[in-house]
Design a protein that fits this description.
Structural class: mainly beta
CATH architecture of the largest domain: Sandwich
Number of strands: 11
Helix content: under 10%
Oligomer: single chain
CATH superfamily of the largest domain: Cupredoxins -  blue copper proteins
Shape: globular
Strand content: over 45%
CATH class of the largest domain: Mainly Beta
Order of helices and strands: EEEEEEEEEEE
Radius of gyration: 18 Å
Distance between the termini: 28 Å
């Protein structure tokens, strides 16, 4: 919501309450998307996901055993163990194509594309 020259009120959600914060000199931007990758039957679904820089990718483990989402380069991201029924979120920072796998089950592979 525009309040005055160079001032916007951006709604924030905290503990279920609608709060407002004033940001001086800010310009409104599109909110970043959250893309979900499910892990089930020893597969990532979808096997390739494309997001924008700054978007969040969430891996949800619906499988019967723990898994990871670990970049092949070992540096870009590493979820650690995601328990059955658990999830892990990663905010994308750099543009590029990232192959990743499950370190517990290296035959599980997928690709994250950040544009």
């Amino acid at each position: 919501m525009f309040v005055g020259k160079g001032m916007f009120v951006l709604p924030l959600i905290a503990g279920g309450l609608g709060l407002a914060a004033t940001v001086w000199g800010a310009t409104p931007t599109a909110l970043h998307a959250v893309k979900v990758v499910t892990i089930n039957q020893f597969r990532y679904d979808p096997p390739e996901v494309t997001v924008r820089q700054g978007d969040v990718v969430e891996w949800k483990n619906l499988d019967i055993v723990p898994h990871t989402a670990t970049s092949v380069d070992g540096k870009s991201f590493d979820s650690g163990s995601i328990a059955t029924g658990g999830s892990w979120r990663f905010t994308t920072v750099r543009k590029g194509t990232y192959e990743y796998l499950c370190t517990f089950h290296p035959n599980m592979k997928a690709t994250l594309v950040v544009k």
